[in-house]
Amino acid sequence: MRQRRGHAIMVAFPFQGHITPYMNLAMKLASKGFLVTFVHLEFIHHKLLSSLSEPDPFTMARKSGLDIRYTTISDGFPIDHDRVDDKYWEFMLLNFWIRVDEFVGKLIRSSDPDLVPFLVTDTLFTWQTAVAEKHNLLKVSFWTEPALVFSLAYHVQLLRENGHFPCKDHVEEEINYVDGVKSVNTKDLMPYLKECRSRTLVHKVQMKAFDEVKKADFILHNTVYELESGILSALNKIQPNYAVGPISFSRNLPASVTRTLWSESDCSVWLRSKPPGSVLYISFGSSLQDSKQIVGEIAYGLLLSKVSFVWVVREDADLPSSFRDEITERGLVVPWCNQIKVLSDPAVGGFLTHCGWNSVLESMWCGVPMICHPLDYDQPTNRKLVVDDWKVGINLCEGGCVEREEVCEKMDGFMNGGVSERLRKEMKKVREKLHDALENDGSSEANFEQFVKDLKAKLAANAE
Ligand code: UDP
């Protein structure tokens, strides 16, 4: 009997750190013969337009034969609505599914009846089950953070039974009872699991998302099996989990897709004038505003230090007024750049990062050791992996408070001293694991193949 073709319906979660890996997942699915309908929210499409990018990232991919369609849907709010308020996310949590449901219904009705549609959603979207049940669709959930973070959030009931959820704010205890997780101190838990954050919307979204993911047919992780094998094997005993990362560096795709929400400043000419390994790259990611205190202390720390640096600082950030004049040719301050290109530049020898998962993966892919200063979400837990487990980074501040003298001391020591030699040695091993995973016979490639096989079998059974 002829096998009917699968049709992946993908609605992108509207944050930079989620968009890039998700676009690459779309490409990978299309390269395995699936039809993909990729959807951006309209306001993201407009942001992409204004950052001078061509918003449809798949033009080249289509030219090389992949079947990826691009479209947009509205979230029901005006394009210029300020989407950082709780009201917006309350709506997304409770009512956005109705808009997706309408879209999916129309798409299925107008599609070739020979296609078998299924949903591929970001784990943090909370509408997957409602829409899938209504249209009898299989559900693939895509997790864009490390498996450790997934496992802790997945096991909140167990954390609750052990008195660690919601976790008292200043308690420091070891969590060593989650299958596959060796040990995590409660100080390294994601802040949304802490008592002081238990009434926040981020907490609600995460809790709902982890209720939903338990009903997913398949779970994909943007991590590498060799880095988190114990956790992934333990999760696999409960549901089918596949480590397929770092997906944004996948080989064998006909075109690369990078689309960022802001225009990129070119740092290459400036970097060319610097000796190899001499520049510290500094970025705190896309979604959190760096606090005025942190920006100030880092700026003064940089002025006291001798390191050369590229610093991604939003135009509206509060830099000390004399900073730009005083740094002269030692530093370059840009509002946004092509991070992977900067990290790949031979002049760059270190990365001061907030430990967003994409930044961590990109740094490890390029073999650049990190100075870590996590701010929120999964970042404190990611820091634990980078500094304590994999030993490819150090903490910016040991006491929690960022102070200029310590910033200066850490940066100078890191860029010039023996610390970075030790980190570089460990980094070489980790980098190798990432690169090996994406070789043709590597674990992430094999896992993706296995996922495609399992998915096709289940789609066929479901379509009967
Ligand atoms: N990024 C970039 N240019 C910049 C700063 C960041 O392209 O100037 C990209 C970076 O490569 C990464 C993403 O933005 O892919 C940030 O994701 P991450 O998970 O590190 O942090 P988030 O922004 O989600 O906090």
TrEMBL record:
<comment type="similarity">
    <text>Belongs to the UDP-glycosyltransferase family.</text>
</comment>
<dbReference type="GO" id="GO:0080044">
    <property type="term" value="F:quercetin 7-O-glucosyltransferase activity"/>
</dbReference>
<dbReference type="Pfam" id="PF00201">
    <property type="entry name" value="UDPGT"/>
</dbReference>
<dbReference type="GO" id="GO:0080043">
    <property type="term" value="F:quercetin 3-O-glucosyltransferase activity"/>
</dbReference>
<dbReference type="InterPro" id="IPR002213">
    <property type="entry name" value="UDP_glucos_trans"/>
</dbReference>
<keyword id="KW-0328">Glycosyltransferase</keyword>
<keyword id="KW-0808">Transferase</keyword>
<protein>
    <recommendedName>
        <fullName>Glycosyltransferase</fullName>
        <ecNumber>2.4.1.-</ecNumber>
    </recommendedName>
</protein>
<dbReference type="InterPro" id="IPR035595">
    <property type="entry name" value="UDP_glycos_trans_CS"/>
</dbReference>
